[in-house]
Amino acid sequence: MAEGPFSPEEQQRFDSALAEILTHYPQDRKEAAMMPALRLLQAIKGWLPPDGLALVAQRLGTSKERAYEVATFYVMFHTEKPGKYVVDVCTNLSCSLWGAEKLLQHIERKVGLKAGESNGKYTLRETECLASCGTAPCLQINEEHHESLSPAKVDEIFSRLP
Amino acid sequence: MTEKIITKNWGQEGSHTLDGYRKNGGYQALKKALGMKPQEVLDEVKKSNLRGRGGAGFPTGAKWGFVPKDSPKPTYLAVNADESEPGTFKDRYILEYDPHLMIEGIAITAYALPRCSVAYIYIRGEFKKQAEICQRALDEAYAAGLLGKKVMGSDFSLDVWLVRGAGAYICGEETALLESLEGKKGWPRLKPPFPAVVGLFGAPTIINNVETLASVPSIIEKGAAWYAGLGTEKSGGTRLICLSGAVNRPGVYEISLKTTIRELIFDPELGQGMPDGRSVKAVIPGGSSAPVLSADEIDVALEFEALKNKGTMAGSGGVIVMDDATCMVRCLWRVARFYAEESCGQCTPCREGTPWQTRILRKIEEGRGVKGDVEQLLNVAAAIAPYPPIGLGNTICALGDAAALPTHSFVSRFRAEFDAHIEQKKCPYGDRPWGHFGGGRA
Is any Cβ of chain B less than 8 angstroms from the Cβ of A36? Predict the structure, then answer.
């Protein structure tokens, strides 16, 4: 793998983690490890670059097309490089009943993006129910969950981003 | 006061750790089960009237009984921790506060099933913290000999692997979950064959919800008769209800199956009533897929049979309350958008129908509706799944029904509001469609 997606250190991390993951599956079902393998790739690279997808497919004994099909089906997988902070704001029913639409507008003004847009720093998305309806409204930033939000609380969370 | 089974350890220090769990008698039920014959464990769960807490409410013991006794293949247990039905947020807290309760339930269940030595927990990708807590709990259980080879020194062995999803509501559907576990996109499978016969990797597979499995240890510990006695004739035990929307105290409550929606909303120990000056307009009783009820229909127990008799369903226990200042068209539009977003695209009626519903609803809400739009909307919904009764959908899985039922039920209960939008060429609620709390938290 001279032209792989990884540096030598990353390659080592990928190889050892993938070897452990594969012990969770029957030996003739390596391709079943697609979800954790893609998650691993994304944890290392921050997204799923094409050469990374190809490597995952090759290691799991399946096609690049299969890897791409899975990668594009799930919203948490990024087949394009996202901003440094992926901000997912829930606007589903219970959150909207607690002001999620207004909160999203506040965040849109704050980061200068409309939901669905991206720049180098932020990817802002309207997302579906995050199963936090009793503490609505809520959002996630790079998979970190924040709940019972007000505009002031959002401002504080953003101000603490490194 | 309802007896606490699932939530009994919540709020106690270290409830998510093995030490904390054992301090409260944890893993005694597994020890007891391992001294019983697997068939005796299964019989006990059958007699308890435990019904699935994921949405369908299917009797758990009967489901386990569908696994063929004499198959050359192993049996898998798949734990559905893909909690994503809008309005549902109970499994989140089981995983966070008491993961060992679920793990003990997994071990007992796997023991009761024939040839089951591997379980997969499929947890939704957004539950990062819960996945980490759960994995630590699994590691603790392995280290203590409660999982792995020779569980508690018996001849029973069990591996439990945690798999994280990546953001797809459809993977909560049991056969889509299996597809995802097999490393594929989450496209539901046609049934039959049912997963209990042909499931994961072509082998018999039981799929149970987190809360369902967390109910199992107490049944073994205290007996089926005790558990059945807590519930109603056909549904044993207590259940977790997730209360959200326009109430003073949203949250997860462990309640008796005899509790009514009105009691849930107004009891000072539970929802603590409506905000000042507001009354109930509508309640979704079982996650956003469940047909909505109007204010005069809420004296109904939050129980499978009672809600079925009202033309709706207990579903996943997600109760969403809307107050009298809330626009029903706006609510239905948002619900419809969800199903359009989450439709997997496999079946035409759902793939095409869910965005079509959304477009019509948007048009009506934005004041561009014309006469005939509501009929058109109902036609589209009926093409996905006619109603009543529930369950006649024209799609492989129940997402089609889930997308059509809100439309049928919102229109049948609140038709006048849809017509008012069209007649006035605007939303009568102006820029405040979301009711009392819709302006957000201060």
Answer: yes
State the residue for tokens 């029973």: B156
Residue window 291-320, chain B: list those with CB within 8 Å of chain A: 318, 320
Nearest CA in chain A to B180: A35
Q: Read off the tokens for B269.
A: 């120990």
CATH code of the domain made up of B18-230:
3.40.50.11540
Boundaries of CATH 1.20.1440.230 in chain B? 328-424
Does the CB of A123 have a partner CB in chain B at under 8 Å? Answer: no
Fold of B328-424: de novo design (two linked rop proteins) (1.20.1440)
Cross-chain residue pair A35–B169, CB shorter than 8 Å: no
The pLDDT tens digits for B53-70 are 998 889 999 999 999 999
pLDDT for the residue numbered B401: 96
A34–B183: do the CB atoms touch at under 8 Å?
yes
**ipTM of this predicted structure:** 0.97
- Answer whether B241 touches A (CB < 8 Å): no
Tokens of B174: 């049991």
Contact at CB, A134 and B341, closer than 8 angstroms = no
pLDDT tens digits, one per residue of B120-170: 999 999 999 999 999 999 999 999 999 999 999 999 999 999 999 999 999
Q: In this complex, how many residue pairs, one in chain A and one in chain B, have their CB atoms less than 8 Å apart?
A: 176
Closest CA to B289 of B361, B343, B347: B343
Please give the CATH topology (third level) of the domain spanning B238-323.
Answer: Ubiquitin-like (UB roll) (3.10.20)
| CB-based contact A94 B180, cutoff 8 Å | no
Domains of chain A with CATH codes: 8-73 (1.10.10.1590), 85-159 (3.40.30.10)
Residues 6+ apart with CB under 8 A from B93: B7, B10, B252
Q: Do A70 and B185 touch (CB under 8 A)?
A: yes
Domain with CATH 3.10.20.600 in chain B: 238-323
Best residue in B244, B252, B322, B361 for a mutation probing chain A (most A CBs within 10 Å) = B244
Q: What percent of chain A has pLDDT over 70?
A: 98
Nearest chain A residue to B165 by CA distance is A35
- What distance lies between CA B62 and its chain's CA centroid? 19
Q: What is the pLDDT of residues A95-116, one digit of tens each?
A: 999 999 999 999 999 999 999 9
Cβ separation of B183 and A35 shorter than 8 Å?
Answer: yes
What value does the mean pLDDT take over residues B330-335?
Answer: 98
pLDDT for residue B56: 87
- pTM surpassing 0.95? yes
Residues of A whose CB is below 8 A from B185: 69-70, 73-74
Task: Name the DSSP class of A54.
Answer: H
